[in-house]
Structures are given as structure tokens and as C-alpha cells.
């Protein structure tokens, strides 16, 4: 029988893959971003956000502060990497979101699990020009097609258990032609697993694209089902769950981020299952990945967590970075 030996949560923002002197390059891109949702979940233009913010975020900017926050983020990621290594795991179940990498507009499953023998990343195309995204391609393992080992026995058991527990799981045993896995999965491997050849089971949530984004309650219950799938599995693997992405972006919502993290630490399933859909849009939709893993980790203590809000413009754009470890 497989066993869960721990869980982690990690942001995977492109800002983490670049030194702060390049954050201004990303900040310039915010000005034309059509997916800026404010703290109440209303879509705004960059100019509208800036007018509403006034001088509120003036003290959050500057390369000296950015350097400190960047270092704090990397200290947390280094700690996660060390602790995963110490667990000597046999598989990592990465709960992430697909953003046009494996799926496209022809099909967009709400929940998918890949159970093939191996899988590969795709090449990040049509990214903005500049050094910022050249670094992102490498950090996401999307500079080329890179192959990684799956855990087909465990992943198969997660699919069958999920279906038995009432979830309509999209089953992927082979890579769709011409497609590849993306940022949510390549980041965890490159930054946290490094040179260790640990099999990875990709769980794909449609956090991002209406109209079939799962609710927070559905995500939490999916996590419970995934944990039960591990317990029912006939494979003899030590498993870590990893939530990849978030927290709030492209507009930082500290109130939401802190409430989600406090609920995870407190084991407050009621709050996590009730996070409003309108607050889980655009990049902030990746909070669903954390809610899912929180469901899988139900009953387990959080051993530590860090939250670092990283603003990059006076309009309040940036990313709420979070890192967390369940026992």
C-alpha cells in the first residue's frame, strides 16, 4: 500500500526565475494585461487599478526591497527542496493548472490525471521578447522538450479511486500530439527536485478558463479523493503531494492570501470549501491547487509556512508568494 509522507505548496511565479533587476520588465507587461481582477474580483484596466491605489503601494517598490523578498522566496524554496530530498520519496503528485499547454479550446477538462509511463514538457512559444521570459523558459523546463518519468501504477489507482468516489476524471495515458506539459510541472521539477529522478504524477485542474472551473468545495473534496486513492493503491510508494502556483496574481490580494493560508494552517475546511468563485480568476485561480492539496492533507499539521507579497507596480500588480509544508 502506498503512503503519503508529506505535502508542500509553492508559488511558481516567473518572478522567482528572474533577479529583481528584471522585475521591471514584467511590470511593463502589466500595463497591457487584459486579466487584472481587483480585490473584489472585478475586472479592471491597469489605469483603473492605479487610480484606485493612489500611493497605497508606493512603499512596496524598489530594488532593495525586491532583493530582500526575492531572497526570502528562494530561502523557502531551498528549504522545501531539502525537505523533499530528506523524505526519499518514490513519487510526487503535482496538482497544477494547464494554461493551453496540454489542452486547447477544442477540449478543456475540469480535472485530468496523467498515468502514462513518461511525459514531457512543451516549448513555451509566443512569449514576450526579452531576457525575462528567456529565463522563464529554462526555469519551467519549456526551453525545449524535456522527458520525465511518470508513476503509472500510482496514477492509475488515483484515476480509478477518483471515479469510484464520484469524480469524472479525464484519463491521459499518452501525450496529446504536438502538446506538452507546462509551467506548473516543470517548475517543481527544475526548482525543487533538481537532479533527483523522482517520478511525477501530473494532476491537471482547469483553474483558469470559464465556464467549467471547479468550485473551491469541489477542489477540496477532490484532494480528499486523491488521498484515498493513495491509501487504496496497490503500489508500494512513498508519496508527496505538491500544490503548484498562486497565490494571488496578477493583482496582489493580501487579504485573500492570508485568509487562505490561515485556514490551511488551522485545518479550516469550511473556509477553504467556500472561497468565492469570483476571487479565483486569472492567476489567482491557482489557489484552487492549494485547496486541493489541503484536502489531501486533511488532518495533517502544517510544520511551517511563509508568505511574501511581491508587488512590482504602484497599481498593486505582482504576486503573493507562498511556501508551505505539511507533515
Rg measurement, Å:
18 Å
The helix content, as a percent range, equals: 25-40%
Q: What would CATH call the architecture?
A: 3-Layer(aba) Sandwich
Distance between the termini: 19 Å
| CATH fold title | Protocatechuate 4,5-dioxygenase, Chain B
Structural account:
36% of the residues lie in helices and 20% in strands. It has 327 residues and is of the alpha/beta class. A hairpin with a 6-residue loop joins strand 11 (302-311) and strand 12. Helix 5 (152-164) crosses helix 7 and helix 7 crosses helix 10. It starts with a strand and ends with a strand.
Give a quick set of tags describing it:
alpha/beta, 36% helix, Protocatechuate 4,5-dioxygenase, Chain B, 327 residues
Q: Which helices and strands, and how do they pair?
A:
Blueprint: E1 3-10, H1 23-30, E2 36-37, E3 43-44, H2 46-53, H3 63-87, E4 91-97, E5 111-114, E6 118-120, H4 131-139, E7 147-149, H5 152-164, E8 170-172, H6 183-193, E9 200-205, H7 216-232, E10 238-244, H8 254-266, H9 269-272, H10 287-296, E11 302-311, E12 318-326
Parallel strand pairs: 1-10, 4-9, 4-10, 5-8
Antiparallel strand pairs: 1-12, 2-3, 5-9, 6-7, 11-12
Amino acid at each position: 500500500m502506498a503512503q503519503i509522507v508529506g505535502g508542500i505548496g509553492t508559488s511558481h511565479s516567473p518572478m522567482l526565475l528572474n533577479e529583481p533587476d528584471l522585475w521591471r520588465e514584467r511590470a511593463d507587461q502589466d500595463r497591457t494585461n487584459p486579466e487584472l481582477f481587483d480585490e473584489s474580483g472585478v475586472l479592471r484596466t491597469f489605469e483603473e487599478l492605479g487610480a484606485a491605489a493612489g500611493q497605497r503601494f508606493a512603499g512596496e517598490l524598489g530594488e532593495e526591497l525586491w532583493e530582500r523578498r526575492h531572497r526570502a522566496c528562494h530561502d523557502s524554496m531551498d528549504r522545501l527542496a531539502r525537505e523533499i530530498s530528506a523524505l526519499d520519496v518514490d513519487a510526487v503528485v503535482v496538482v497544477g493548472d494547464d494554461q493551453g499547454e496540454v489542452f486547447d479550446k477544442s477540449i478543456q477538462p475540469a480535472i485530468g490525471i496523467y498515468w502514462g509511463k513518461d511525459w514531457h514538457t512543451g516549448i513555451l512559444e509566443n512569449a514576450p521578447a526579452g531576457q525575462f521570459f528567456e529565463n522563464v523558459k529554462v526555469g519551467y523546463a519549456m526551453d525545449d522538450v524535456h522527458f520525465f518519468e511518470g508513476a503509472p501504477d500510482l496514477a492509475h489507482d488515483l484515476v480509478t479511486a477518483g471515479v469510484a468516489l464520484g469524480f469524472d476524471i479525464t484519463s491521459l495515458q499518452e501525450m496529446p500530439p504536438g502538446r506538452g506539459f507546462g509551467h506548473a510541472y516543470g517548475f517543481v521539477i527544475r526548482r525543487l527536485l533538481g537532479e533527483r529522478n523522482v517520478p511525477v504524477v501530473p494532476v491537471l485542474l482547469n483553474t483558469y478558463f470559464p465556464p467549467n472551473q471547479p468550485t473551491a468545495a469541489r477542489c477540496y473534496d477532490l484532494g480528499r479523493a486523491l488521498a484515498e486513492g493513495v491509501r487504496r493503491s496497490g503500489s508500494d510508494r512513498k508519496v508527496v503531494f505538491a500544490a503548484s502556483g498562486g497565490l494571488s496574481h496578477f493583482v496582489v490580494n493580501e487579504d485573500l492570501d492570508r485568509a487562505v493560508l490561515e485556514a490551511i494552517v488551522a485545518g479550516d475546511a469550511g473556509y477553504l470549501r467556500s472561497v468565492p468563485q469570483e476571487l479565483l480568476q486569472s492567476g489567482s485561480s491557482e489557489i484552487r491547487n492549494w485547496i486541493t492539496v489541503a484536502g489531501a492533507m486533511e488532518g495533517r499539521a502544517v510544520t511551517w509556512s511563509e508568505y511574501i507579497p511581491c508587488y512590482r507596480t504602484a497599481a498593486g500588480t505582482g504576486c503573493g508568494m507562498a511556501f508551505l509544508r505539511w507533515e
